[in-house]
């Protein structure tokens, strides 16, 4: 049994035991390499080390993949009914709901986001996601197809694709875990999960609940590791049938290349974004300003769908800027254990420096910071929301994903100009339209090149609605029934019951 770290939550004086080994075959184990290398989990609000965690090597990945393959061939895959899969997934959801507060506190400690956000939104949605896919587990159906009614028929089966490598990011550690795990388990796949090296703790804690729920050994395996080690090993592994990744476009390209060069495994990628908000003159400006503020401030702007570009129709520009500035100014980026905090720190020193490099680039290229843009003193990777105006299309802050609370605001005159500005990006994950003209909403939402378009709202997702990107924002879909297709392989069976063949022809 690997070491258990007892973590003290200073705000509540609560102690939480967290396993720090690799979770393989329902056991927490050390690395087979017996390597002294560890991942240091950091509290981004204090910059202090929480605890060390075992870092998986390529050999550990291989052990985990073998465990997953064994489970797929014996106790999971096609060897268990949908009813049983559903029961176990629902049981896991019940256990997460039981431990919701503790998981939220651990998430806040390692990720920085406010406890109330982690508990009520991230984990609340995780529970719903698991229950949604538990409902699908016994409803995986094929088709019966007419070929020749007198002599033959064909039917299809949606078989589980097999062993799935799943690589998740640090911005929603629990929520992204559920988005990957739930549909894969529902159809009968087994999993090797690599959480981000920045936020490994809740994935390890969830692994305890997987075992408690009664999943057979090897069905879910958790291997904290650095991306260039564990992530690369999963992407290139010849016995992994599918890899699912959420993260940067740069890393997504590497994963796709490794998958192609190894065994041509199936790949789904949810990548970056530079999502636009279009504010038309007929919009409810109070509400549009609130949604735009949420779009850039929620999760401290560390969101693939962050609405980081806002374009406002000229006649309402000045009024909207005043409303938006007031709403963004009301955001409190603070300690996640403080009830008044609505956002937390940036995840790491590296990401903090990256965000500040963009803020400085915006200033140097001539954009005007009308809010924020000033560094705090003291501990913690805190960045206050920053709004730039006087932007132009060639600026780095307008073109590149920042992944922090940095907003660029521009103007437009006509609807066609607004659509052109919105689509002028290599990304295509999300977009927002704010207008009281129903016909305009339909025209514009149809013209925007994005996988998700929000009309008179922003950044709210539902477990039964598909989510994913276009262009360099990725391939494949998560959530809804569409996610099931990412984890299944369609088999066609041709059945001859009457036709005789003469040979030679």
Automatic annotation (TrEMBL):
This is Aldehyde dehydrogenase domain-containing protein. The active site is at 270. It holds the Pfam family Aldedh. Keywords: Oxidoreductase. Gene3D superfamilies: Aldehyde Dehydrogenase, Chain A, domain 1 (3.40.605.10), Aldehyde Dehydrogenase, Chain A, domain 2 (3.40.309.10). Residues 34-493 form the Aldehyde dehydrogenase domain. GO terms for molecular function: aldehyde dehydrogenase [NAD(P)+] activity. Belongs to the aldehyde dehydrogenase family.
């Amino acid at each position: 049994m690997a070491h258990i770290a007892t973590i003290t939550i200073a705000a509540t004086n609560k102690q939480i035991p967290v396993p720090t080994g690799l979770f393989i075959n329902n056991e927490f184990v050390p690395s087979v390499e017996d390597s002294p290398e560890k991942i240091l989990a950091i509290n981004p609000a204090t910059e202090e080390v929480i605890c060390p965690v075992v870092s998986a090597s390529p050999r550990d990945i291989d052990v985990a993949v073998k465990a997953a393959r064994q489970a797929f061939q014996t106790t999971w895959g096609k060897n268990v009914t949908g009813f049983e899969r559903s029961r176990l997934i629902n049981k896991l959801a019940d256990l997460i709901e039981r431990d919701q507060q503790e998981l939220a506190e651990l998430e806040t400690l390692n990720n920085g986001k406010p406890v109330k956000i982690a508990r009520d939104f991230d984990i609340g949605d995780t529970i719903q996601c698991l229950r949604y896919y538990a409902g699908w587990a016994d409803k995986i159906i094929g088709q019966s197809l007419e070929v020749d009614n007198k002599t033959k028929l064909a039917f299809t089966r949606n078989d589980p694709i097999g062993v799935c490598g799943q690589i998740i990011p640090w911005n929603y550690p629990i929520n992204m875990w559920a988005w990957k795990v739930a549909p894969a388990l529902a159809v009968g796949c087994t999993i090797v999960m690599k959480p981000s090296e920045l936020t490994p703790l809740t994935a390890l804690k969830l692994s305890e609940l997987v075992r408690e729920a009664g999943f057979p050994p090897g069905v879910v395996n958790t291997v904290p590791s650095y991306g260039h080690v564990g992530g690369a090993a999963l992407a290139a592994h010849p016995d992994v049938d599918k890899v699912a990744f959420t993260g940067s476009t740069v890393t997504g390209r590497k994963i796709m290349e490794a998958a192609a060069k190894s065994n041509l495994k199936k790949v789904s990628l949810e990548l970056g974004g530079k999502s636009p908000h279009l504010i038309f003159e007929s919009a409810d400006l109070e509400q549009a300003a609130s949604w735009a503020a949420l779009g850039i401030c929620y999760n401290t702007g560390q969101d693939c769908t962050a609405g980081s570009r806002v374009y406002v129709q000229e006649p309402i520009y000045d009024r909207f800027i005043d409303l938006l500035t007031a709403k963004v100014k009301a955001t409190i980026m603070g300690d996640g254990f403080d009830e008044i905090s609505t956002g937390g720190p940036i995840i790491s020193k590296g990401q903090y420096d990256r965000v500040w490099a963009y803020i400085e680039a915006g200033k140097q290229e001539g954009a005007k910071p009308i809010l924020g843009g000033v560094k705090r003193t003291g501990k913690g990777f805190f960045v206050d929301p920053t709004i730039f105006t006087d932007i132009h299309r060639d600026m780095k802050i307008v073109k590149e994903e920042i992944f922090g609370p940095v907003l660029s605001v521009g103007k437009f005159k006509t609807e066609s100009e607004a659509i052109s500005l919105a689509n002028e990006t290599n990304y295509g994950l999300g977009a927002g339209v704010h207008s009281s003209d129903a016909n305009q909403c339909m025209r514009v939402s149809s013209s925007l090149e994005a996988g998700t378009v929000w009309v008179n709202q922003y950044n709210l997702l539902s477990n039964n609605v598909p989510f994913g990107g276009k262009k360099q924002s990725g391939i494949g879909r998560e959530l809804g029934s569409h996610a099931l297709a990412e984890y299944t392989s369609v088999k066609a069976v041709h059945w001859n019951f009457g036709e005789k063949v003469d040979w030679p022809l």
